[in-house]
Amino acid sequence: MMLRVGKIMNAVMFFLIFIFLIGFSGIRQSLAADNNQPFLFGFGHRLEIAEEAKIYTPFLKYLTEKTGYRFAPRFIQKTESMSELIGKGHVQFTALGSVEYVHANEKYGIIPLVRGLNSQNKAAYQAAIITQPDSDIKSVKDIRGKTFAFGSSESTQGHLIPRIMLLKFGITLKDLKNHTYAGSHSNAGQAVFSRQYDAGGLQDTLAKNLERKGLVRIVAMSDFYPSSGIAANKNVRPEIAEAVKKALLGFEPSGRDKGRLYHWEKTEMPNGFVKVSETDYNAIRDAMLKIGLLEKGKE
């Protein structure tokens, strides 16, 4: 009898250890919800971190009120990759550009939730190529042989789209005198208006703001491409992801929710969010394949 009880106790203990290990190693998202720990929400850099924090803190408070879950911001560091952070579960949700999304979706299976609406109420955005106001660069073709500042190497507006714009004039990286990845849109803009680099590529709204201030001149605007969106790590429980998605689609930054926000117009989704489909990113995938940012079947 004692032997039988011992076997039963060992079996129960083994089962409990197994459940503990599975839960501990695999699903940080569930622990966050069950233990009232906040979900980490990733954000890239377009402005200074202090300004970004002021912008996104009220937004995360809105999500908490609408979903009942807590959220904390996690701003990406210069040496980090947002696609890796969300893919490996270091953050559970993130705002990210189309290039980052495609990389993370192909490699880690992250889940798209929504896409952002720009100031024209379109789920699309542009990139701009800029130079100094007194520069002899008058068109994109004049950039051949010049120095060029990109944003992050994973940025859609700060890298992919400017590369496509240059390629339309037969300009590849080898045709530039020098180039750098400044790490953010603001850094790329600063690299140009401080005259460290002859030209640069960055986000459309920031480029227009810098031009209005007389710091830069816009050489060219790109075509429209699918806008940045918000995605979830694949291990986030479906009911949690759905609650966040519902709150995002109900977000009215230029209407009902405007009073609670801080300069939301500076974000890439000033008019809120719309539903997203996997096919929305086909144009981005094609562009990435074209310039070698994505190898078919290798992600």
Spatial strand sequence of the major β-sheet: 2-1-3-12-4-13
Distance from first to last alpha carbon: 57 Å
Structural class: alpha/beta
Query: Which percent range describes the beta-strand content?
Result: 15-25%
Estimated helix fraction: 25-40%
Give the count of structural domains.
Answer: 2
CATH third-level topology of the largest domain: D-Maltodextrin-Binding Protein, domain 2
Stretches where pLDDT is under 50 for at least 5 consecutive residues are 1-31
CATH superfamily of the largest domain: Periplasmic binding protein-like II
In CATH, the architecture of the largest domain is 3-Layer(aba) Sandwich
Number of strands: 13
CATH class category label of the largest domain: Alpha Beta
Give the averaged pLDDT, no decimals. Answer: 87
H/E series? HHEHEHEHEEEEHEHEHEEEHEH
Give the count of helical stretches.
10
- Oligomeric state of the chains? single chain
Radius of gyration: 22 Å
Task: Summarize, please.
With 299 residues, this protein is α/β, with parallel strands linked by helices.
Give an account of the 3D structure.
- This protein has 299 residues and is α/β, with parallel strands linked by helices.
- It has two domains: 38-122 and 228-290, Periplasmic binding protein-like II (D-Maltodextrin-Binding Protein, domain 2, 3-Layer(aba) Sandwich); 127-223, 3-Layer(aba) Sandwich (D-Maltodextrin-Binding Protein, domain 2), CATH 3.40.190.
- The protein is built from ten helices and 13 strands.
- It has a six-stranded mixed β-sheet with strand order 2-1-3-12-4-13, sandwiched between helices. A five-stranded mixed β-sheet has the order 8-7-9-6-10.
- The radius of gyration is 22 Å and the shape is globular.
- The N and C termini lie far apart (57 Å).
- Mean pLDDT is 87; it is low at 1-31.
